[in-house]
Amino acid sequence: MYDNYSFDDAIQLQNNLAKYLSLVPVKNITTIAGADISFDKNSTTMFAGIVILSYPELKLINYALETFETSFPHEPGFLGFREVPALLKVWDLIHNKPSIVVLDGNGILHPRRMGVASHFGVLANQATIGCAKSNLYGNNHIPENSKYSSLEINSHGEILGFSLRTKDNCLPVYISAGQLITQQQSLDIIKKCIGNYRIPEPTRLAHEIVNDFRIGKLKAGFHTINQPLTLF
DNA sequence: GCGACAG
DNA sequence: ATCTTGTCGC
Question: Which annotated residues bind Mg(2+) (predicted)?
Fold first, then answer.
């Protein structure tokens, strides 16, 4: 899909996609999904997965898994070009789309407002939130050391996201709106997705299943949990 | 020029 | 991202 894109091409596409950003409120939230990618260090095979949780109960309902071949290199600022094609392939397996998808990485907290969450959100026309584990862009102020403390992250006076303490004595995560959601909602909703771990449940569970998929413990396809369980 | 740099 | 042992702190 993007394998023969140069970085100049990629920058142009990001700037064009950014024109479609619409940070309007998301309504009637009944489910929230987490999406992630796993891969072996020197392999082009990506193991993509999406988990769907009920909201606000956060019980695992469904998950989907697919593999995808990518040759686009890892490059800060261009994560979408590596991960979005694989995620769109798993996305196709899901017939009942979730209200929101949380992705591992940034949304508009990005030099061209086109982090992986915004990139996926624009192409899939889907409400998304970016949840990154470290800081890519903007000022990096560390919030107070207590659960739920947060600080705005801005660039040139513009608010682009938040650092959020999801657990005492743990480094913050970085939240930003992806697409079809307001900045305030992105922060409020992620706060409600915090379990007993640093990483909020949607992304945390997605990471867990793609790893099990990669090591052969789970198989490709769309799966339904018969007896939804709270996993924390 | 220098340092930083999502996964 | 993944691999991998011990170690510090709540």
Answer: 36, 104
